[in-house]
């Protein structure tokens, strides 16, 4: 891993049903997300908050939860974690997609600026 000044940092945010939160966190941590560079060697770091997700599966959907055409509301976790390096964030997103129960997991990746 490069120095903190030259290695790009990202924030990965994803939303997941509470039943699958731990499996999704484990998947992204396994490929290197959630590690803070520095002398403390912290790993598996994240912030989690609970809320209610809402969606209506459209025609052609194969929903894990709910039914096509029916509005669904479920308890979900919002998980945020630091990811150092573009290669690691790409692997973390792929791991999340494999571990997540939904056809189209909701996630966001933000580039973090260093000052």
From TrEMBL:
<dbReference type="InterPro" id="IPR036069">
    <property type="entry name" value="DUF34/NIF3_sf"/>
</dbReference>
<protein>
    <recommendedName>
        <fullName>ATP phosphoribosyltransferase</fullName>
    </recommendedName>
</protein>
<dbReference type="InterPro" id="IPR015867">
    <property type="entry name" value="N-reg_PII/ATP_PRibTrfase_C"/>
</dbReference>
